[in-house]
Amino acid sequence: MSEKERNEENISEEENIKDQVEEILDDAIEEADEKSAEAEGEQLSEKDQLKADLEKEKDKFLRLFAEFENYKRRTSKERIEMFKTASQDVIIAMLPVLDDFDRALNEIAKAKDKNLLKGVELIHTKFRETLRAKGLELMEVKEGDSFDADLHEAITQIPAPSDKLKGKIVDVVEKGYKLGDKIIRYPKVVTGK
Hints:
alpha+beta; Nucleotide Exchange Factor Grpe, Chain A, domain 2; 3 domains; 3-stranded mixed sheet; 4 helices; about 15% strand
């Protein structure tokens, strides 16, 4: 479903709820008018009954109005969240390309061809900056950091090269990225035991 169709659907839902509120109000007013006309000649207890009915209708209206306000807030929040992560699928698909760029840059640096290295660095920087402008952030993880299962994905454990690295990150196999506050790819790390 396209964004335009969702917006049209949300607008039509809001109009339906508004129509329901107007109908309930009109019905309550008509009912109160009819009952008050009938009640003029009758006893005081019927007048009290009408007041109770009117209060009941007011309560219905207030509840429906509150429900409508909650609906508006919820859809606004969902719409904002959708805009924030609308490009998430495209960015996730571009992460392997970014990884390939990093690997190519490392290999070209070994070749000692300065012009080739400079050209690839320019393209790499432009690509990374474009993704950063769309909200992509690199998760900074380095050797010696504490392992956190909520932030890292351990792919294996190896004997720690030193006592300082026991239970810590020994190597980063694949970089992790966040889109806004949401982690879209966890960094893959090797831990020491």
